[in-house]
UniProtKB/TrEMBL annotation:
Membrane-crossing residue ranges in chain numbering: none
Family statement: Belongs to the serine/threonine dehydratase family. DsdA subfamily.
Molecular function per GO: D-serine ammonia-lyase activity
EC number: 4.3.1.18
Reaction(s) this enzyme catalyzes, per UniProt: D-serine = pyruvate + NH4(+)
Span of domain Tryptophan synthase beta chain-like PALP: 85-402
Gene3D superfamilies listed in its UniProt record: 3.40.50.1100
Keyword hit for Lyase: yes
Protein known as: Probable D-serine dehydratase
UniProt modified residues of type N6-(pyridoxal phosphate)lysine: 123
Top-rank taxon: Bacteria
Entry keyword set: Lyase, Pyridoxal phosphate
Cofactor: pyridoxal 5'-phosphate
Length: 451
Protein backbone atom coordinates (compact mmCIF):
# COMPACT_ATOMS: atom_id res chain seq x y z
CA UNK A 1 0.00 0.00 0.00
CA UNK A 2 3.00 2.30 0.57
CA UNK A 3 3.37 2.91 -3.12
CA UNK A 4 -0.26 3.71 -3.81
CA UNK A 5 -0.76 7.38 -4.62
CA UNK A 6 -3.93 9.30 -4.03
CA UNK A 7 -4.05 12.47 -6.09
CA UNK A 8 -0.29 12.27 -6.44
CA UNK A 9 0.51 11.79 -2.77
CA UNK A 10 1.35 8.47 -1.12
CA UNK A 11 -0.80 7.10 1.68
CA UNK A 12 2.26 7.39 3.91
CA UNK A 13 2.53 11.10 3.18
CA UNK A 14 -1.18 11.65 3.69
CA UNK A 15 -0.80 10.08 7.14
CA UNK A 16 2.22 12.24 7.90
CA UNK A 17 0.22 15.38 7.11
CA UNK A 18 -2.99 14.17 8.79
CA UNK A 19 -2.14 11.59 11.47
CA UNK A 20 -5.83 10.96 12.19
CA UNK A 21 -5.98 9.09 8.88
CA UNK A 22 -3.93 6.38 10.53
CA UNK A 23 -6.71 5.78 13.06
CA UNK A 24 -9.27 5.77 10.28
CA UNK A 25 -7.30 3.13 8.37
CA UNK A 26 -7.19 1.02 11.54
CA UNK A 27 -10.98 1.54 11.83
CA UNK A 28 -10.64 3.02 15.32
CA UNK A 29 -13.45 5.24 16.56
CA UNK A 30 -12.39 8.86 16.17
CA UNK A 31 -13.68 12.31 16.99
CA UNK A 32 -12.60 15.13 14.69
CA UNK A 33 -13.29 18.77 15.17
CA UNK A 34 -13.20 20.65 11.92
CA UNK A 35 -10.23 23.03 11.61
CA UNK A 36 -12.01 24.85 8.78
CA UNK A 37 -15.09 25.64 10.89
CA UNK A 38 -15.88 29.35 10.75
CA UNK A 39 -18.31 31.80 12.19
CA UNK A 40 -21.54 31.80 10.25
CA UNK A 41 -21.14 35.18 8.59
CA UNK A 42 -17.88 34.22 6.90
CA UNK A 43 -18.67 30.52 6.46
CA UNK A 44 -21.95 31.12 4.66
CA UNK A 45 -20.23 33.12 1.93
CA UNK A 46 -18.44 30.01 0.78
CA UNK A 47 -21.64 28.15 -0.05
CA UNK A 48 -23.50 28.32 -3.30
CA UNK A 49 -26.95 28.13 -1.72
CA UNK A 50 -28.94 30.66 0.27
CA UNK A 51 -32.19 31.17 2.14
CA UNK A 52 -34.10 31.75 -1.06
CA UNK A 53 -33.20 28.30 -2.35
CA UNK A 54 -34.48 26.63 0.79
CA UNK A 55 -37.62 28.79 0.78
CA UNK A 56 -38.29 27.77 -2.82
CA UNK A 57 -38.18 24.09 -1.83
CA UNK A 58 -40.41 24.76 1.16
CA UNK A 59 -42.99 26.55 -1.02
CA UNK A 60 -42.99 23.72 -3.54
CA UNK A 61 -43.69 21.18 -0.78
CA UNK A 62 -46.57 23.38 0.37
CA UNK A 63 -48.02 23.45 -3.14
CA UNK A 64 -47.95 19.67 -3.19
CA UNK A 65 -49.35 19.28 0.32
CA UNK A 66 -53.01 18.92 -0.79
CA UNK A 67 -51.97 16.14 -3.17
CA UNK A 68 -49.83 14.40 -0.56
CA UNK A 69 -52.62 14.59 2.03
CA UNK A 70 -55.00 13.02 -0.47
CA UNK A 71 -52.85 10.11 -1.63
CA UNK A 72 -51.03 9.37 1.64
CA UNK A 73 -53.74 9.50 4.33
CA UNK A 74 -51.13 9.14 7.09
CA UNK A 75 -50.04 12.72 6.27
CA UNK A 76 -53.55 14.18 6.76
CA UNK A 77 -52.89 15.14 10.37
CA UNK A 78 -50.17 17.50 9.19
CA UNK A 79 -52.16 18.62 6.12
CA UNK A 80 -49.88 16.87 3.69
CA UNK A 81 -46.62 18.13 5.13
CA UNK A 82 -44.22 15.18 5.42
CA UNK A 83 -42.67 15.64 8.85
CA UNK A 84 -41.50 13.47 11.72
CA UNK A 85 -42.03 13.82 15.46
CA UNK A 86 -39.34 14.87 17.91
CA UNK A 87 -39.33 13.32 21.36
CA UNK A 88 -37.59 13.52 24.70
CA UNK A 89 -35.74 10.34 25.61
CA UNK A 90 -35.22 10.60 29.37
CA UNK A 91 -34.61 6.88 29.98
CA UNK A 92 -32.05 6.59 27.20
CA UNK A 93 -30.42 9.79 28.39
CA UNK A 94 -30.18 8.45 31.91
CA UNK A 95 -28.78 5.17 30.61
CA UNK A 96 -26.08 6.92 28.58
CA UNK A 97 -25.19 9.41 31.32
CA UNK A 98 -24.88 6.62 33.84
CA UNK A 99 -22.59 4.48 31.71
CA UNK A 100 -20.37 7.43 30.91
CA UNK A 101 -20.46 9.24 34.23
CA UNK A 102 -22.00 12.45 32.92
CA UNK A 103 -24.21 14.96 34.67
CA UNK A 104 -25.83 18.23 33.60
CA UNK A 105 -25.14 17.59 29.97
CA UNK A 106 -28.33 19.28 28.79
CA UNK A 107 -31.37 17.66 27.24
CA UNK A 108 -31.28 14.81 24.71
CA UNK A 109 -33.94 14.75 22.01
CA UNK A 110 -34.52 12.20 19.29
CA UNK A 111 -35.71 13.46 15.91
CA UNK A 112 -37.72 10.53 14.64
CA UNK A 113 -37.20 10.41 10.88
CA UNK A 114 -37.41 6.71 11.62
CA UNK A 115 -41.14 7.36 11.83
CA UNK A 116 -41.57 10.01 9.15
CA UNK A 117 -44.67 9.25 7.07
CA UNK A 118 -44.57 7.50 3.67
CA UNK A 119 -41.05 6.09 3.66
CA UNK A 120 -39.75 5.80 7.23
CA UNK A 121 -36.42 7.49 6.65
CA UNK A 122 -34.71 10.81 6.07
CA UNK A 123 -34.98 10.03 2.34
CA UNK A 124 -38.69 10.90 2.54
CA UNK A 125 -37.43 14.48 2.58
CA UNK A 126 -35.00 14.70 -0.33
CA UNK A 127 -36.13 11.78 -2.48
CA UNK A 128 -39.82 12.65 -2.54
CA UNK A 129 -39.02 16.32 -3.00
CA UNK A 130 -36.93 15.72 -6.11
CA UNK A 131 -39.61 13.55 -7.73
CA UNK A 132 -42.26 16.19 -6.97
CA UNK A 133 -40.11 18.93 -8.43
CA UNK A 134 -39.53 16.93 -11.60
CA UNK A 135 -43.24 16.13 -11.86
CA UNK A 136 -44.15 19.79 -11.41
CA UNK A 137 -41.70 20.86 -14.12
CA UNK A 138 -43.08 18.31 -16.58
CA UNK A 139 -46.72 19.16 -15.86
CA UNK A 140 -46.12 22.90 -16.17
CA UNK A 141 -44.13 22.48 -19.40
CA UNK A 142 -47.04 20.55 -20.88
CA UNK A 143 -49.60 23.04 -19.62
CA UNK A 144 -51.35 20.58 -17.40
CA UNK A 145 -50.67 22.59 -14.26
CA UNK A 146 -50.07 26.12 -13.02
CA UNK A 147 -48.52 27.22 -9.75
CA UNK A 148 -51.90 28.51 -8.61
CA UNK A 149 -53.76 25.21 -9.06
CA UNK A 150 -54.95 22.97 -6.28
CA UNK A 151 -52.41 20.19 -6.69
CA UNK A 152 -54.78 17.55 -5.35
CA UNK A 153 -55.98 17.34 -8.97
CA UNK A 154 -52.74 15.47 -9.71
CA UNK A 155 -54.44 12.46 -8.18
CA UNK A 156 -56.21 11.53 -11.43
CA UNK A 157 -55.98 9.12 -14.36
CA UNK A 158 -55.08 12.03 -16.60
CA UNK A 159 -51.92 12.81 -14.63
CA UNK A 160 -51.00 9.17 -14.06
CA UNK A 161 -51.22 8.53 -17.79
CA UNK A 162 -49.15 11.59 -18.47
CA UNK A 163 -46.40 10.64 -16.00
CA UNK A 164 -46.38 7.05 -17.25
CA UNK A 165 -44.66 8.28 -20.43
CA UNK A 166 -41.67 9.18 -18.28
CA UNK A 167 -39.27 7.24 -16.17
CA UNK A 168 -37.09 7.99 -13.22
CA UNK A 169 -33.87 6.18 -12.35
CA UNK A 170 -31.96 6.22 -9.09
CA UNK A 171 -28.88 4.61 -7.60
CA UNK A 172 -29.37 3.69 -3.98
CA UNK A 173 -28.20 1.60 -1.06
CA UNK A 174 -31.90 1.18 -0.25
CA UNK A 175 -33.72 3.99 1.48
CA UNK A 176 -33.51 6.51 -1.32
CA UNK A 177 -34.93 3.88 -3.64
CA UNK A 178 -37.79 3.21 -1.21
CA UNK A 179 -38.77 6.88 -1.08
CA UNK A 180 -38.43 7.42 -4.81
CA UNK A 181 -40.12 4.11 -5.60
CA UNK A 182 -43.14 4.82 -3.42
CA UNK A 183 -43.81 8.31 -4.73
CA UNK A 184 -43.15 7.32 -8.37
CA UNK A 185 -45.52 4.41 -8.12
CA UNK A 186 -48.19 6.72 -6.67
CA UNK A 187 -47.78 9.34 -9.40
CA UNK A 188 -47.51 6.90 -12.30
CA UNK A 189 -43.83 7.25 -13.22
CA UNK A 190 -41.87 4.19 -14.27
CA UNK A 191 -38.97 3.71 -11.94
CA UNK A 192 -35.68 1.85 -12.24
CA UNK A 193 -33.53 1.36 -9.20
CA UNK A 194 -29.83 0.62 -9.46
CA UNK A 195 -28.58 -1.11 -6.34
CA UNK A 196 -25.30 -2.38 -5.05
CA UNK A 197 -24.84 -6.02 -4.14
CA UNK A 198 -24.89 -5.25 -0.40
CA UNK A 199 -28.34 -3.63 -0.49
CA UNK A 200 -30.74 -5.40 1.86
CA UNK A 201 -32.91 -8.08 0.28
CA UNK A 202 -36.13 -6.88 1.91
CA UNK A 203 -35.65 -3.46 0.36
CA UNK A 204 -35.28 -4.99 -3.09
CA UNK A 205 -38.35 -7.17 -2.56
CA UNK A 206 -40.40 -4.23 -1.35
CA UNK A 207 -39.47 -2.21 -4.43
CA UNK A 208 -40.38 -5.04 -6.76
CA UNK A 209 -43.76 -5.19 -5.05
CA UNK A 210 -44.20 -1.52 -6.01
CA UNK A 211 -43.51 -2.48 -9.61
CA UNK A 212 -40.11 -0.84 -9.65
CA UNK A 213 -37.46 -2.39 -11.87
CA UNK A 214 -34.52 -3.36 -9.67
CA UNK A 215 -31.11 -3.78 -11.29
CA UNK A 216 -28.35 -5.15 -9.09
CA UNK A 217 -24.64 -4.65 -9.55
CA UNK A 218 -21.76 -6.62 -8.14
CA UNK A 219 -19.72 -3.59 -7.19
CA UNK A 220 -20.27 -1.03 -4.46
CA UNK A 221 -22.60 1.91 -4.19
CA UNK A 222 -20.56 4.35 -6.30
CA UNK A 223 -20.55 1.74 -9.01
CA UNK A 224 -24.34 1.36 -8.88
CA UNK A 225 -24.77 5.13 -9.14
CA UNK A 226 -22.34 5.25 -12.05
CA UNK A 227 -24.25 2.51 -13.87
CA UNK A 228 -27.57 4.18 -13.13
CA UNK A 229 -26.29 7.44 -14.56
CA UNK A 230 -25.22 5.67 -17.77
CA UNK A 231 -28.50 3.80 -18.03
CA UNK A 232 -30.56 6.98 -17.68
CA UNK A 233 -28.49 8.95 -20.18
CA UNK A 234 -29.21 6.36 -22.85
CA UNK A 235 -32.94 6.37 -22.33
CA UNK A 236 -35.27 9.03 -23.66
CA UNK A 237 -37.61 10.63 -21.11
CA UNK A 238 -35.59 9.20 -18.26
CA UNK A 239 -34.63 11.45 -15.36
CA UNK A 240 -31.80 10.40 -13.08
CA UNK A 241 -31.82 11.26 -9.39
CA UNK A 242 -28.15 11.63 -8.71
CA UNK A 243 -27.49 11.05 -5.03
CA UNK A 244 -23.85 12.11 -5.43
CA UNK A 245 -24.58 15.43 -7.12
CA UNK A 246 -28.17 16.49 -6.59
CA UNK A 247 -28.92 20.05 -5.50
CA UNK A 248 -32.61 19.21 -5.32
CA UNK A 249 -32.05 16.42 -2.82
CA UNK A 250 -29.89 18.77 -0.74
CA UNK A 251 -32.54 21.50 -0.68
CA UNK A 252 -35.35 19.04 0.01
CA UNK A 253 -33.45 17.94 3.10
CA UNK A 254 -32.69 21.52 4.12
CA UNK A 255 -36.40 22.25 4.60
CA UNK A 256 -36.24 20.09 7.74
CA UNK A 257 -34.58 22.96 9.57
CA UNK A 258 -37.53 25.35 9.71
CA UNK A 259 -39.75 22.44 10.74
CA UNK A 260 -37.40 21.62 13.62
CA UNK A 261 -37.35 25.27 14.61
CA UNK A 262 -41.15 25.21 14.97
CA UNK A 263 -41.05 21.96 16.94
CA UNK A 264 -38.49 23.33 19.39
CA UNK A 265 -40.60 26.46 19.82
CA UNK A 266 -43.63 24.32 20.51
CA UNK A 267 -41.63 22.53 23.22
CA UNK A 268 -40.57 25.90 24.66
CA UNK A 269 -36.93 25.06 23.99
CA UNK A 270 -34.72 28.07 23.52
CA UNK A 271 -31.77 28.29 21.20
CA UNK A 272 -29.57 31.36 21.62
CA UNK A 273 -26.16 32.48 22.86
CA UNK A 274 -26.77 30.91 26.26
CA UNK A 275 -28.72 27.89 25.03
CA UNK A 276 -26.63 26.06 22.45
CA UNK A 277 -28.11 23.48 20.10
CA UNK A 278 -26.04 20.44 19.12
CA UNK A 279 -27.22 18.26 16.25
CA UNK A 280 -25.84 14.83 15.35
CA UNK A 281 -26.49 13.58 11.83
CA UNK A 282 -25.64 10.15 10.35
CA UNK A 283 -23.82 10.68 7.07
CA UNK A 284 -23.59 8.67 3.86
CA UNK A 285 -22.92 10.69 0.71
CA UNK A 286 -23.73 13.79 2.76
CA UNK A 287 -26.81 15.22 1.02
CA UNK A 288 -29.21 14.46 3.88
CA UNK A 289 -27.12 15.53 6.84
CA UNK A 290 -25.41 18.28 4.85
CA UNK A 291 -28.71 19.74 3.69
CA UNK A 292 -30.18 19.68 7.18
CA UNK A 293 -27.03 21.17 8.71
CA UNK A 294 -27.07 23.90 6.09
CA UNK A 295 -30.71 24.74 6.80
CA UNK A 296 -30.05 24.81 10.54
CA UNK A 297 -27.06 27.13 10.16
CA UNK A 298 -29.22 29.57 8.16
CA UNK A 299 -31.66 29.71 11.05
CA UNK A 300 -29.54 29.42 14.20
CA UNK A 301 -26.19 30.59 12.82
CA UNK A 302 -23.49 30.33 15.51
CA UNK A 303 -25.88 28.91 18.10
CA UNK A 304 -26.14 25.53 16.38
CA UNK A 305 -23.27 23.05 16.19
CA UNK A 306 -23.62 20.25 13.65
CA UNK A 307 -21.70 16.98 13.81
CA UNK A 308 -21.74 14.17 11.27
CA UNK A 309 -21.63 10.50 12.27
CA UNK A 310 -20.11 7.76 10.12
CA UNK A 311 -19.31 4.05 10.51
CA UNK A 312 -15.66 3.27 11.35
CA UNK A 313 -15.54 1.12 8.22
CA UNK A 314 -16.88 3.86 5.99
CA UNK A 315 -15.67 7.34 7.03
CA UNK A 316 -16.09 8.72 3.52
CA UNK A 317 -17.15 12.29 4.25
CA UNK A 318 -14.52 12.56 6.97
CA UNK A 319 -11.68 11.48 4.67
CA UNK A 320 -12.98 13.83 2.00
CA UNK A 321 -13.00 16.72 4.48
CA UNK A 322 -9.63 15.98 6.12
CA UNK A 323 -7.80 15.65 2.82
CA UNK A 324 -9.85 18.31 1.05
CA UNK A 325 -10.26 15.82 -1.80
CA UNK A 326 -14.03 15.39 -1.30
CA UNK A 327 -15.39 13.14 -4.05
CA UNK A 328 -11.93 12.55 -5.51
CA UNK A 329 -11.18 10.07 -2.77
CA UNK A 330 -12.83 6.84 -1.70
CA UNK A 331 -12.22 5.13 1.64
CA UNK A 332 -11.08 2.17 -0.46
CA UNK A 333 -8.10 4.19 -1.69
CA UNK A 334 -6.92 4.03 1.92
CA UNK A 335 -7.68 0.34 2.17
CA UNK A 336 -10.84 0.78 4.26
CA UNK A 337 -13.41 -1.83 3.22
CA UNK A 338 -16.67 0.17 3.61
CA UNK A 339 -18.40 -2.93 4.98
CA UNK A 340 -20.85 -2.05 7.75
CA UNK A 341 -24.28 -2.99 9.07
CA UNK A 342 -25.21 0.68 8.60
CA UNK A 343 -26.28 0.19 4.99
CA UNK A 344 -27.64 3.73 4.68
CA UNK A 345 -24.15 5.05 5.34
CA UNK A 346 -22.20 2.47 3.35
CA UNK A 347 -20.90 4.68 0.59
CA UNK A 348 -17.17 4.81 -0.11
CA UNK A 349 -17.17 8.23 -1.70
CA UNK A 350 -18.90 11.39 -0.48
CA UNK A 351 -20.81 13.81 -2.67
CA UNK A 352 -18.43 16.43 -4.01
CA UNK A 353 -20.53 19.53 -3.81
CA UNK A 354 -21.92 18.83 -0.35
CA UNK A 355 -18.51 18.67 1.34
CA UNK A 356 -17.32 21.78 -0.44
CA UNK A 357 -20.44 23.71 0.45
CA UNK A 358 -20.65 22.91 4.10
CA UNK A 359 -17.03 22.48 5.11
CA UNK A 360 -16.87 25.85 6.83
CA UNK A 361 -20.21 25.30 8.62
CA UNK A 362 -19.66 21.83 10.07
CA UNK A 363 -18.37 21.57 13.62
CA UNK A 364 -16.96 18.08 13.24
CA UNK A 365 -17.39 14.36 12.62
CA UNK A 366 -17.07 11.17 14.63
CA UNK A 367 -17.08 7.50 13.75
CA UNK A 368 -18.89 4.58 15.41
CA UNK A 369 -18.19 0.87 15.09
CA UNK A 370 -20.84 -1.68 14.23
CA UNK A 371 -20.92 -3.29 17.67
CA UNK A 372 -21.71 0.06 19.24
CA UNK A 373 -24.46 0.58 16.68
CA UNK A 374 -26.04 -2.73 17.65
CA UNK A 375 -25.77 -1.96 21.36
CA UNK A 376 -27.31 1.47 20.96
CA UNK A 377 -30.09 0.03 18.84
CA UNK A 378 -31.04 -2.45 21.57
CA UNK A 379 -30.66 0.10 24.35
CA UNK A 380 -33.02 2.47 22.58
CA UNK A 381 -35.63 -0.26 22.27
CA UNK A 382 -35.21 -1.26 25.94
CA UNK A 383 -35.28 2.29 27.28
CA UNK A 384 -37.68 4.13 24.97
CA UNK A 385 -39.32 1.41 22.90
CA UNK A 386 -38.01 3.15 19.79
CA UNK A 387 -36.83 0.97 16.90
CA UNK A 388 -34.24 2.63 14.70
CA UNK A 389 -32.16 1.05 11.97
CA UNK A 390 -28.41 0.70 12.51
CA UNK A 391 -27.51 3.73 10.35
CA UNK A 392 -29.84 5.93 12.35
CA UNK A 393 -28.41 5.13 15.78
CA UNK A 394 -25.04 6.50 14.70
CA UNK A 395 -26.46 9.83 15.89
CA UNK A 396 -27.11 8.58 19.41
CA UNK A 397 -23.59 8.56 20.90
CA UNK A 398 -23.02 12.11 19.60
CA UNK A 399 -23.43 14.01 22.89
CA UNK A 400 -21.30 11.48 24.77
CA UNK A 401 -18.52 11.70 22.25
CA UNK A 402 -18.57 15.48 22.25
CA UNK A 403 -18.56 15.72 26.03
CA UNK A 404 -16.08 12.93 26.74
CA UNK A 405 -13.46 13.09 24.03
CA UNK A 406 -10.50 15.42 24.24
CA UNK A 407 -11.16 17.04 20.86
CA UNK A 408 -14.80 17.51 21.79
CA UNK A 409 -13.93 19.21 25.06
CA UNK A 410 -11.48 21.45 23.22
CA UNK A 411 -14.23 22.40 20.80
CA UNK A 412 -16.51 23.30 23.70
CA UNK A 413 -13.80 25.39 25.38
CA UNK A 414 -12.82 27.15 22.20
CA UNK A 415 -16.39 28.22 21.58
CA UNK A 416 -17.06 29.13 25.23
CA UNK A 417 -19.71 26.44 25.59
CA UNK A 418 -18.41 24.54 28.60
CA UNK A 419 -20.41 26.52 31.15
CA UNK A 420 -23.56 26.51 29.01
CA UNK A 421 -24.00 22.77 28.75
CA UNK A 422 -26.70 22.62 31.36
CA UNK A 423 -28.85 24.72 29.03
CA UNK A 424 -27.91 22.77 25.94
CA UNK A 425 -30.18 20.77 23.67
CA UNK A 426 -28.75 17.76 21.86
CA UNK A 427 -30.74 16.53 18.88
CA UNK A 428 -29.90 13.04 17.68
CA UNK A 429 -31.23 12.66 14.16
CA UNK A 430 -32.79 9.19 14.05
CA UNK A 431 -32.66 8.89 10.28
CA UNK A 432 -34.61 5.71 9.64
CA UNK A 433 -36.17 2.51 10.91
CA UNK A 434 -39.92 2.00 10.69
CA UNK A 435 -39.75 0.24 7.31
CA UNK A 436 -37.40 -2.45 8.62
CA UNK A 437 -39.32 -5.77 8.80
CA UNK A 438 -39.99 -6.97 12.32
CA UNK A 439 -37.90 -10.17 12.04
CA UNK A 440 -34.89 -8.20 10.91
CA UNK A 441 -35.23 -5.64 13.68
CA UNK A 442 -35.49 -8.57 16.08
CA UNK A 443 -32.16 -9.91 14.80
CA UNK A 444 -30.50 -6.53 15.25
CA UNK A 445 -31.93 -6.31 18.75
CA UNK A 446 -30.61 -9.73 19.75
CA UNK A 447 -27.23 -8.95 18.31
CA UNK A 448 -27.12 -5.76 20.39
CA UNK A 449 -27.69 -7.76 23.57
CA UNK A 450 -24.93 -10.22 22.65
CA UNK A 451 -22.08 -7.95 21.64
C1 LIG B 1 -29.30 7.88 3.40
C2 LIG B 1 -29.29 7.76 4.86
C3 LIG B 1 -28.48 8.57 5.66
C4 LIG B 1 -27.49 9.55 5.12
O1 LIG B 1 -27.89 10.40 4.08
P1 LIG B 1 -26.85 10.79 2.95
O2 LIG B 1 -27.56 11.79 2.12
O3 LIG B 1 -26.51 9.55 2.19
O4 LIG B 1 -25.64 11.34 3.65
C5 LIG B 1 -28.55 8.39 7.02
N1 LIG B 1 -29.36 7.49 7.58
C6 LIG B 1 -30.18 6.71 6.84
C7 LIG B 1 -31.07 5.73 7.53
C8 LIG B 1 -30.17 6.81 5.46
O5 LIG B 1 -30.97 6.03 4.73
Amino acid sequence: MNTIRIEGTTVQDWIKTYPLINDLIRTKEVFWSNPKYELFQTGIEKTRFNEKDVKDAEERLKRFAPYIAKVFPETKKLNGIIESPIIKIPSMQQHLEQIHGLTSSGQFLLKCDSHIPIAGSIKARGGIYEVLKHAENLAIQHQLLTLQDDYSMIDSEKFRNFFSQYSIAVGSTGNLALSVGIICSKMGFNVTVHMSADAKKWKKDFLKSKRATVIEYKGDYSNAVEEGRKYASNKPNCYFIDDENSHDLFLGYAVAASRLQQQLKDMSIRVDGNHPLFVYLPCGVGGGPGGIAFGLKLIYQDHVHCFLAEPTHCPSMLIGLITGLHDKVSVKDFGIDSITVADGLAVGKPSGFVGQNIESLLSGCYTVNDNHLYQLLSALIDSENMSLEPSAVASVPGPIRLLKEKEGQEYLRKHCLTDKLENATHVMWGTGGSMVPKEIMEEYYKKGLEV
